[in-house]
Amino acid sequence: MRPMEEELYRGLARYYDILYQYRDARGQAAFALDQLARHGDRETGTALVLGCGTGVHSQHLVEAGLGVVGIDKHEEMLRVARERTDATFRQGTLPDVALDRTFDLVFLPGTVVNYLSMADLETTFDLLASHLADDGVLVFDYGTLFDVDGREPPFLNTASDGDVDVAQLVQLRRYSDRKTRWDSVVVAVGPDFEEFFVDTHAITVLERDDLREMLRDRGFEVTVHPDGYDTGDQFDVDIETVVAR
User: Fold this and answer.
1) Structural domain for 128, as ranges
2) pTM over the 0.85 mark
């Protein structure tokens, strides 16, 4: 079967929440809200969620009382998000996103920044600076697991919602100084169906000092949390979280 670029986020988006249910989205949203209350001196307001996916984080922010706009590049993910919560969702691709307003919280969960080239990341940080309100807070995470040497041994993720079982076999391969390739085989099995597909995408390897410098060049104060969102879930092991204001 021919590998499909980011296929998990397109035609098979319905399996995304099952596969990544181990991520504590509620805890991650709570972390972002805590940073907003602590550094932005507010607990309510507006939030922009970039790479919002199926809307899980947006849902928790709406429940906390924020007015939320979620943006994702894949319409299939947004279709799921619109069924989940009444946040405002629109399709867009970083760094080509422009809104005529600012937000108290700008949130990029799920290693969104690793999907950008270094040039696009620079442009994205310019964009985020222009969309952040005075005393607003920027929160994002980036993956440390992508910083591999050569070809890593494959690892397996499995998950189930009781009706559908999903298994994902992943291999990471470093192919340049700044790029790692993610190749995965995903199998989904339900009561009366089986689906199989190959998903692949390029990942940008990011380093803490580079991110700190790029943000400081744009006037941000930066704090890096090496324990991720400190939720204690498996995802925190593989990421660091950055808070900028």
Assistant:
1) 7-145+206-244
2) yes
